[in-house]
Amino acid sequence: MQSISFCVFFVFVCVIFSLVSENAKIVTAAAEGPKNNGVYIVYMGSASASRTDFLRLLNSVHRRNGKAVVHTYKHGFTGFAAHLSEQEAQAMRQSPGVVSVFPDPILKLHTTHSWDFLVSQTSVKIDANPKSDSSPQPYDTIIGILDTGIWPESESFSDKGMSPIPSRWKGTCMVGDDFTSSNCNRKIIGARFYESSESDGIRFHSPRDGAGHGTHVASTAAGSAVANASYYGLAAGTAKGGSPGSRIAMYRVCVADGCHGSSIMAAFDDAIADGVDVLSLSLGAPSYFRPDLTADPIAIGAFHAVEKGITVVCSAGNDGPSSGSVVNDAPWIITVAASTIDRDFESDVVLGNKKVIKGEGINFSNLQKSPVYPLIQGKSAKKASASEDSARICSEDSMDETHVKGKIVICENSVEGGGSDWQDQAETVKNLGGVGVVLIDDNSKLVAEKFPSPMTVISKKDGAELLSYVTSSGNPVATILPTVTIINYKPAPAITYFSSRGPNPAVLNMIKPDISAPGVNILAAWLGNDSSSTPQATKSPLFNVISGTSMSCPHVSGVVAFVKSQNPTWSPSAIRSAIMTTAIQTNNLGSPMTLDTGSVATPYDYGAGEISTNGALQPGLVYETSTTDYLNYLCGRGYNRSTIKSISTTVPDEFDCPKNSTAYYISNMNYPTIAVSELKGKESKKVIRTVTNVGGDGEAVYTVSVDAPGEVDVKVIPEILKFGKNNEKQSYQVVFTSTVSTLNEVFGSITWTDGKHRVRSPFVVTSKSSES
Q: What is 4-18+139-342+493-617's CATH superfamily?
């Protein structure tokens, strides 16, 4: 398997071809920060910003070069993208009404059984299935997806039995290459595509998906139920999205060289005007390129979408397991980590001594089931001119054909820090006449790669046993069995190694990611013409299995849409709170969730926990984060009132940033989680939270319980909250007191319950300070 760190540096062309050919199952969220196509984004804040300033700057560009303007933004916010010189960009930065001018960044792309698994894990047993087509949902939700496009012929996008398109929908179905208005229906109600400039290289003038990623994501979020779906018989079952009653609006923002920030902002601008309820983005910047908020197309677009009542869900990134690697971490975004499910793809190795070693991966091995094939280590076949280390990892030109031909070769992990270039290893062995490969690699073992020839991946622990057999046997032999699907695998869920982690070093006073969801080996709809994705000489697969936080994001988007359908008046923050406070922290063994290494997971790994498909329908209490909270967050990040007033349409006249605004004000955002930094010595810090009663029963009495580590004393005031009616608000304080001189990150939780509802908020406390 390709290492995540390696994939990050691939240009998008490589991502597209590796995705289609299944050489890379983790579609990495990445960005080429400094690289620029000559396009700059001129961001001028809210849509109510000065029309005069906007037209003046836009006209100045038109006068210079009528073709210079690439996009204009005028619905959700104001600005434009245009070809500019750096000198022109610098001059515009000084112009009245301009918030920021920045180079157009290139961001990158970051299920049958997964939904059944989530339902089985939830602790709230209610009917989580959307109402039947004959009984319309209370609110017809529309999910907007920014991605690589859509394959409309997939059965997952059938509109059979769906009601007419909601009259409030204002979007369009754009016509393009191999895409007509008839490709839209009552499921796919909108389709747009964006092209940033003539320098994009290979251009595809259409909303049609040429990569598969957007189709997979869309069907995971809102695909119609499809019986007997599978990947050549594997992962068989009924494929469906999280909200199969929802509509889909596809915004194809990715072109040959990546997902341009200018296109992403144009899609946000259109989606706000079109009337979507949810926006799902399985893409973003890598952790090594973390743009300023006013130069981040996703953070900007999401802010204005949330101001208009649209919930925005984004992937956390695939740069794990490094600490501080999470992206898309603005507080107005729901940020999603990736976890495993209880389905496994097993391809075993049978040894001559009758021992069976469990392997992972997808292969359709045609080898005999009896262990009759000679088994050797790569280093045992090394050429005289090659090093033992290069042969051990089966590097090209490192092994002798006479030693490899007709044998199964054991190759070891080829990439420092995890992952393997298994494609090169498999090709090397095949070209030398080898009949199969056993790869020893803990990380690659976790994601089911699709192997074009007999190949499987085993753990280092099992690898030691395998190598012992080879060295102790006078005639070691083996075979590799074809893959079978294993259900009820334990433990699950676990946070997978590639999932990006918190904290954001610059903002220790907020926990990100927010939530985790299935993102490993997810089956969903695929292209209908992708012959490269099949390991057999058969027709293209209609469904495919891939992994990444790209796959976890639409799981949450589907739940968001379903919650919205049942609670149409809830704000984006209320929906986020309902999802977070009802999350699950245990696996199917009844034990605390872990990382895939077996270590206990923390809120920096999974946020509030694993998403519950139906718990969010009955949260009891919700934390509603106001626009003022977000404005105070911007103050805490160093922005002044003038800039903030330009960004937001809802800044109260009396609003001003607090004097000496610090990260402590971020701790006091009315967020469902709590993070406190700089708690040193034996000092105390206080945070305030406000909850709204949405239990539906009117009167309610909630009592609090605290799970705190010994290094910090936690006191909640008051310990009882009494509500007399629905939608009533009550506030409480939490006082954190350190009992030691220095705190690293320590975690705990505060839970309110009325006997029916359980409202849980995790917290983290540290002595560390946010980076400036």
A: Peptidase S8/S53 domain (3.40.50.200)
Residue with tokens 């005007």, as numbered in its chain? 273
Task: Quote the CA–CA distance of 48 and 631 in Å, as a whole number.
Answer: 17
Pick the more confident residue, 371 or 420: 371
The verdict on whether 397 is a catalytic residue reads no
205 as an active site residue: the answer is: no
Query: Which entry of 104, 140, 147, 441 is annotated as an active-site residue?
Result: 147
What distance in Å separates the CA atoms of residue 636 and residue 508, rounded to the nearest whole number? Answer: 12
Residue of 213, 403, 555, 757 with catalytic role: 213
Name 692's bridge partners.
622, 729
Query: What is the rounded CA–CA span in Å between residue 675 and residue 635?
Result: 17
Residue appearing with tokens 């954190």: 736
Structure token pair of residue 278 = 């949810």
Cβ atoms of 662 and 612 within 8 Å: the answer is: no
| 490-541 pLDDT, tens digit each | 999 999 999 999 998 889 999 999 999 999 999 999 998 876 655 655 678 8
CATH of span 373-475: 3.50.30.30
First to last CA, the chain: 37
- DSSP for 476-529 reads -EEEEPPPEEEES-SS--EE-TTS----BTTBTTS----EEEE-SSEEEE--SS
Q: 254, 188 in Cβ contact below 8 A? A: no
For residue 148, what are its two tokens? 């690589």
Helix axes of 213-222 and 549-566: crossing angle, nearest 10 degrees: 30
Q: What is the C-alpha separation between 119 and 97, in angstroms, rounded?
A: 49
- Of 262, 395, 500, 550, catalytic: 550
Residue 333 CA to residue 576 CA, distance in Å, equals 9
Fold annotation for 621-625+670-765: Immunoglobulin-like (2.60.40)
**pTM, to two decimals:** 0.92
- Name the CATH architecture for the domain at 38-103: 2-Layer Sandwich (3.30)
